[in-house]
Batch of 3 targets.
Target 1
Amino acid sequence: MDNEKVSTSPKFVSLDEAAAMTEGTRITFIPGVQALYAEALKNICFAKGIPIIRAVHPLMGVDKETGKDRQARLYELTSQTGLPTMFFNAERPRNVWTEQLALAERIGSSSSPTLIPDNFQHRAEMYGLCAVVLSEDGMVWNMRILNDGPLGRKYGYSEEASTLAPGKIAEVIRLIDACLEQQASRGSRYLVGDSVTAADIYWATMSMSLMPTPPEIMPVTKQNQGMLKHFASNAQRPEIAAVLSQRIEDHQRYILTTYCETPAVLGGDPL
């Protein structure tokens, strides 16, 4: 995909423009693609009532015309290449989900839900659930190494790791399902406590990689149609299919349609 040829509706600014700004919240995205961590951060900001400015995230690989690494400038600005980068006012860029979440909680609307619980027991539960979904060797990490490819190799793909990955993904799903079952028994629709937390939003967003979602939640674009097919195929893997429950699907749909931006606004070229 050539970034210069991508539709700019909604508006996307360049990476350099985003880095040069001294006011506002800027987040990098790939237009037309629901990159999981970027989509999750967008949903966190949506729940917190934070207006965002979208910036184009450079793709992996070498530019065919210049022969240069497409992400060299991103690395120069942020000392890393992961998606998304979050800029706020003139502060340093944030690239790790824990820092992005803490920033969103700090700058969010005073009337928005508290996504990092004040109760430290609940806070520990929230961060623990997020970690097994988002962190190294967690659900998303293992989803990325299911198949060989540039992204899989970036996250340590090997035949052995790929063979173990479906079982690890299934273990996380079982953990989430057990939390939801226990919470439902005490009358809560949420993973932690009695109100929405970051765990709900991160899980609901990331679980789209394991459960197909309808267009009214995730629209199809020219850029994301292949990714959507890949996500749908994940749900057909025996280890994963065996542990996906109606309870998990119901929670996903409730969180996405109640607290997140749906249908997702991606830009790119809608189909």
Target 2
Amino acid sequence: MPNETSTVNPFETAKQQIDIVAKQIHLDGGVLEVLKHPKRELTVHFPVRMDDGSFRVYTGYRVQYNMARGPTKGGIRFHPQVSLDEVRALAAWMTWKCAVVNIPYGGAKGGVICDPKSMSRGELERLTRRYASEISLIIGPEIDIPAPDVYTDSQTMAWIMDTYSMQAGYSVPGVVTGKPIPLGGSEGRGEATGRGCSIVIREAAKDAGIRVKGAKVAVQGFGNAGSVAARLLYDEQGAQIVAVSDSKGGIFKADGLNPHAVEEHKQKTGSVVGFPGTKAISNAEVLEAKVDILVPAALENQITAKNAPKIEAKVVAEAANGPTLPEADTILFEKKATVLPDILANAGGVTVSYFEWAQDIQGFFWPLAEVNQRLDRVMVQSYADVHKVAVEHKVHNRTAAYILAIQRVVDAIRLRGIYP
């Protein structure tokens, strides 16, 4: 995805973030070096039979970043631009995301360089099964638990689970999360990211002095996370959704939109654009709308030094990964806006993935109400932990979340010691 930071190496960015926190918590140089290196990296090259009978060799990766707090967890993406450094960075960020919500996982990530849009279902199944077979050496319910990511879904996870189970000789549902419910998936997993985001908005609004009931909300990116967050803020907290957008453009209505009706319109037409009674606006204008709460739920690098001064929202909740650039963070902090960083605001997904794994391991499944209740408890505590660190260190929430997460990983490394 071309953007103004597309030339930046994501793993260099991830390491810089670790350096910033290391200074804040006076981290020992040796432990800092451990934190800046992935524990294990696997690169695989494997043939896949195409529909026309020919064979093509694909390259895939699986990076396990840190295992100090438990088995690693992280998605698998199928994309033409997958690179080893991107996978390393995403694995590092998963490590911090799991630590910030205090679930007993380290971080991992995987990817295959391919163009899934140009492949048939049969080709995708063969690619998935062969990749799963190649990485089966280092995945498993007690080692590393993959999940869906860009251009992978519950069907992809079903194929991986089946491939791993065939090699084991028995069903191993806990090897992946994000599975279909009949194969050991969890209730509530589909809307977990948006629900987690709506919970931390509720908690942050109290500290920001905003009543969510009647508050104006703009959502950039009306996909899974954005649409669920909008719906729950509207249904459960009485917020007024005034602006939403997707890749084709945005809509605005000063007296509020019904997100259920917008969702129906999007399913029929393929976009929120053209919803009756609304004014057409751009994705950029959604960010600058006159609202109390902004939910960037689309692409990375959306809030920059150029548009941050024009953002009016008092609470910015990152349902997307990396929507805010570092210089924009500083501007928003000076404006006294509360930014809820991605590793906190969108951690509802990995939290319910953890619940799914726990249910699989026990062979005991929870009803939706229990899943949501447990998610609420985790997100409330995680926001409180981050807010406390932000106040103590006089830093914005992103730095606070990294301080909290990295300190938890460092504590685990120190308690375990360095083997042998």
Target 3
Amino acid sequence: MTELVLPQSRLKSSAIDSLLAEYSGNVPGASLMVIHNGKVAYKHSYGMADIEKAVPVTAKTNFRLASVTKEFTATAIMLLVKKGKLNYDDNLTQIFPGFPGYGKKITITDLLNHTSGLIDYESLIPATDTVQVTDKDVLEMMMKQDSTYFEPGSKYQYSNTGYALLAMIVEKVTGKPFARFLKENIFKPLGMKNSIAYQKGISEVKNRAYGYSRKNGGFVRDDQSVTSAVLGDGGIYSSVDDLFKWDQSLYTGKIIPLKMKEKSFTRGTLSNGEKIDYGFGWHLKKFLGHEVVFHTGVTRGFRNVIYRIPSLKVTVIMLTNRNEGDSESLAEKIVSLYLND
């Protein structure tokens, strides 16, 4: 059911629903929320979370966030810096005894900004492997390498490996599982009661959406891959209702101070002085003349986005459980409808 808290004239609901029409019915669905000035301006759910059991998507349905997770991983690291347990210029050989020499040049800032040059762990997994890889496995893979793609700090290259290592840094420094640290230090304080870094056999995702891929004119469940158990780069499940609380916390000093939080939304700098369009866990860009901070999440069975224009206090959150679609483009079309109204 659609919920309009602000006047309907402010948002062209029929146009938004038309954009997402293909997600309606007995097909993998979507959950959408538009936020303005701290209020839910538009909220609607489409399609099915579980086609086989005919379970519809709702605002409380938990989707695998994929790389939207990186916002939370970065915040976990920033929390440890706030507590004096880490420094942004700490390097991998300092943190992990026995890490190969190349790690001496890779700082926490490099990991956060995707400027580490670390080898893509997914390229090291044999095509025949069926056992899921964990963050610890990623660290062990890096311990066996002797080089990077480029001199750390000299170039931007998106790196899931770096964020898996950030999760392991949290575990190394705190002595706690990454999933528990997130729960105790981010999810619980924000009231995100149903958000979880999912570990098969250890935890359970309530109200779970399952991922699907298109096949033979229909959809088949296609929910997990060998990399789905890596938490730091993409393992969180959450809903639009919980992510509303996350979005609103970003305007406040809750979790970490606002001044410190600015690093999340500040473009990183390469060793040659060039700026990159990434902060700590967030992509940065301009759209319709406004500064945008956002992150997409793309993995087997899911396509998601959190798209924020802080100066206007506008956010679009869209979570989907199908192995196709351009969530960033859809978010921008929705923002355009809103701004042009």
